[in-house]
Task: inverse folding
């Protein structure tokens, strides 16, 4: 039983046999991210309950969970809207990441080999290669304004929990999935590369938690919750690792968490939960850079030196020196963020939870069925699903101003989805 459970979760920690990842191009591609999507929500519930229980044991008066309803829904909405945007582009025939990689491999590869004959070389080459590519993309996403415009959305939440892993910018995959992977396409075929790329992304889910402290010797090699917390604490221009922290230690961007704190997010915190505003926010900020738009796109926001120091891999990690987390901080801070200290009424809170959950479910149905739907049916449904998520996220920011609009969009969604499902089943 225990073995069945651990093997079921193994892909979430990149624990897959090299032989299972030696995939030929004509073999069925595993879909790790889609498969484990429901587990994200299970783990989020476990984390919320565990935090409440642990803080209750410390102090019954200030027991709390680090999940704040609007913040959590905003994270899920942002992840969902990224998938919606990618499906929208796919339906228009734009699929940059897999197309660029496959094109380079088909036309410019340096070697042709059978992955079944070289499973270990393929595994270790892609395990390290994909992770190194992620490090340099992620570092670039913090150092260059154009890439930060897509990536800053991931850093816009000021709570830190597993839901933060789902908080993603809509345009980020346009740059993250291929830019630094081009050298790999000269050697490794697309099928095993895609599997490793998904596992690399999947691994990063579990490091978004405050529940896990230091992990001993693993801290020297692996990206861990301790290392990644520093990445989400402003200014956060450190610990860019995906799976292995060795890249940060090697290239001089490693910072150990010396004092536990629970302040996270952007140096200039976002003032809205709106998924549109969060996605457009840095483009607006970039207007203030005194250069042409081309110059702004290539201008750097972090000027860290690029160097490589292998001896740094063996330097000791300093021990934790303190803990400055005030009790009950997360809830109070999340409310202060928007200057709203008046609690929402029970009815409004229930509406937010139900309408948000229905919006997420409807979007998932649209994402599952949208790839094969007629464009004339797909586009209106996409607009309704995204419109509902956007209006809900504005409702979190200003309930009194956006309630009527939100109710209208919710009714539209409740009418459109059954019609879509009925038409789908008839067809
Ligand atoms: Zn980042």
Result:
């Amino acid at each position: 039983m225990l073995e069945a459970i651990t093997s079921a979760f193994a892909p979430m920690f990149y624990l897959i046999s090299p032989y299972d990842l030696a995939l030929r191009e004509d073999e069925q591609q595993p879909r790790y991210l889609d498969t484990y999507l429901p587990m994200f929500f299970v783990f989020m519930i476990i984390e919320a309950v565990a935090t409440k229980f642990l803080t209750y044991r410390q102090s019954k008066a200030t027991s709390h969970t680090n999940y704040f309803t609007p913040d959590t829904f905003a994270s899920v909405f942002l992840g969902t809207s990224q998938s919606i945007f990618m499906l929208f582009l796919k339906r228009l025939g734009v699929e940059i990441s897999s197309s660029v990689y496959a094109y380079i491999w088909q036309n410019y590869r340096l070697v042709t080999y059978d992955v079944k004959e070289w499973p270990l070389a393929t595994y270790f080459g892609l395990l390290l290669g994909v992770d190194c590519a992620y490090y340099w993309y992620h570092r670039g996403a913090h150092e260059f304004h154009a890439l930060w415009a897509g990536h800053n959305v991931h850093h816009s939440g000021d709570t830190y929990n597993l839901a933060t892993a789902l908080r993603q910018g809509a345009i980020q995959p346009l740059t993250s999935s291929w830019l630094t992977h081009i050298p790999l396409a000269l050697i490794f075929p697309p099928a095993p590369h895609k599997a490793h790329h998904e596992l690399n992304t999947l691994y990063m889910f579990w490091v978004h938690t405050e529940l896990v402290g230091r992990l001993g010797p693993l801290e020297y090699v692996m990206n861990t919750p301790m290392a990644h917390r520093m990445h989400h604490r402003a200014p956060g221009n450190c610990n860019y690792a995906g799976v292995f922290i060795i890249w940060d230690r090697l290239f001089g961007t490693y910072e150990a968490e010396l004092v536990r704190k629970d302040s996270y997010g952007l140096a200039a915190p976002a003032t809205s939960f709106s998924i549109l505003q969060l996605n457009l926010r840095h483009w607006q900020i970039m207007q203030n850079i005194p250069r042409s738009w081309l110059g702004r796109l290539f201008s750097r926001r972090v000027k860290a030196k690029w160097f490589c120091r292998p001896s740094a891999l063996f330097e000791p990690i300093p021990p934790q020196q303190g803990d400055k987390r005030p009790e009950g901080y997360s809830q109070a801070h999340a409310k202060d963020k928007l200057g709203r200290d008046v609690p929402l009424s029970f009815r409004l809170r229930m509406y937010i939870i139900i309408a948000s959950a229905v919006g997420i479910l409807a979007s998932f149905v649209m994402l599952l069925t949208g790839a094969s739907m007629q464009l004339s049916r797909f586009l209106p449904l996409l607009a309704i699903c995204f419109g509902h998520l956007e209006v809900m996220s504005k409702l979190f920011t200003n309930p009194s101003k956006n309630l009527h609009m939100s109710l209208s969009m919710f009714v539209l969604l409740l009418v459109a989805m059954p019609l879509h499902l009925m038409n789908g089943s008839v067809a």
